[in-house]
Specification:
Structural class: alpha+beta
Oligomer: single chain
CATH topology of one domain: Alpha-Beta Plaits
CATH architecture of one domain: 2-Layer Sandwich
Number of helices: 11
Strand content: 25-35%
Helix content: 25-40%
Radius of gyration: 29 Å
Length: 329
């Protein structure tokens, strides 16, 4: 210590410059050092979500999840372990990789094998959703959607198709499809007694719908000095038009769709239900993804919600729950 003091007395300017340098570097470090509630963990994770409407959890496990998980371990490098969850109509596979694994290469391998395995899955199986996460991807805020006069179909549609695309632009935010609500679906509920009375079958209804619900590119036609875009009536545009489709003609009588079936604006069975203050609601969960700050993500989400309110129905109420920035404060 005495030696350091002697050097400082002999060369005061050197120590003054060193002190100024430490001061400048310290201030810059204080502003540039990232602060976060949840520090990043370099364990890459890829989530693969399979969807097959109507498939029970045990069938999803045996026909989709088991063969897929089996081929993953032989075709994808750097796998640490695999976790799978089977739900009604859904299969979720989480692939955890060794630290330092090149996530780009892993993603390419997972995508390739996901396309190849389709040949071994049930007919009409579609490719899965592939989402990149890491071990620090955790829910940091949830948005509960509710509103007087808004049905579960309306809430699910607003959350999935209007609000979610806006929020997904926030840096570091990962937002899966909303929980709760009902997916809007036009349903044709066949009446067996009406079919039997007219000597028809469900296949006749299916064939009539297939033959009269086509997507045909037409083009344009020039008449005089104007060129008109043509449209065909080969696809019904409303639910009432679907109900009026002819199914079969016999003895001069035309049987329409509404004679043998009820055409409704409905939804498939719900896989999950969300309640807010005792009422059906929809829940949007925001996950932290990557190295972005948790506080900046939550701030961006709140700002996007405020900006989007002008384009959303006035009756829609958006409540923030599970806000980790408040818990941190």
């Amino acid at each position: 210590m005495i030696g350091i003091v002697r050097v400082a007395l002999k060369r005061p300017y050197t120590f003054v410059v060193l002190a100024v340098f430490i001061l400048i570097v310290g201030v810059l470090s204080a502003f540039r050092t990232p602060t976060d509630i949840f520090p990043p963990i370099n364990i890459p994770v890829i989530s693969v979500v399979w969807q097959y409407t109507g498939l029970s959890p045990d069938q999803m496990e045996g026909r989709v999840m088991a063969p897929y998980e089996r081929v993953l371990t032989t075709t994808v490098n750097g796998v640490q372990h695999i976790e799978g969850t089977s739900l009604t109509g859904y299969g979720i596979v989480k692939i955890f990789f060794q630290p330092g694994t090149n996530i780009g290469t892993a993603n390419a391998q997972v995508t390739a094998i996901s396309q190849e395995i389709l040949k071994q899955l049930p007919p009409s199986a579609t490719p899965p959703f592939i989402i990149n996460y890491n071990a620090s991807t955790v829910p940091i805020i949830q948005l509960a959607l509710s509103g007087k006069g808004l049905s579960e179909q309306n809430l699910a549609d607003l959350g999935k198709n209007q609000l979610r695309p806006i929020l997904a632009t926030v840096n570091g935010a990962a937002i899966p499809f909303p929980f709760g609500g009902k997916d809007r679906q036009v349903q044709i509920n066949i009446k067996p007694s009406a079919l039997e009375a007219r000597s028809l079958s469900a296949e006749d209804v299916l064939n009539a719908l297939t033959a009269q619900n086509l997507v045909t590119p037409v083009g344009t036609e020039k008449i005089g000095n104007y060129e008109y875009t043509l449209q065909l009536n080969d696809a019904p545009a409303t639910i009432a038009a679907i109900a009026n489709l002819p199914v079969k003609s016999a003895n001069g009588t035309v049987v329409h769709m509404h004679d043998v079936a009820d055409v409704t604006d409905g939804s498939p069975p719900q896989p999950n239900i969300v309640h807010v203050e005792g009422k059906r609601s929809v829940l949007l969960t925001v996950f932290k993804n990557g190295s972005a700050s948790t506080l900046s993500i939550i701030g961006g989400i709140r700002q996007k919600v405020a900006d989007a309110k002008g384009s959303l129905p006035d009756a829609l109420q958006i409540d923030a729950i599970g806000d980790q920035s408040i818990n941190a404060a």
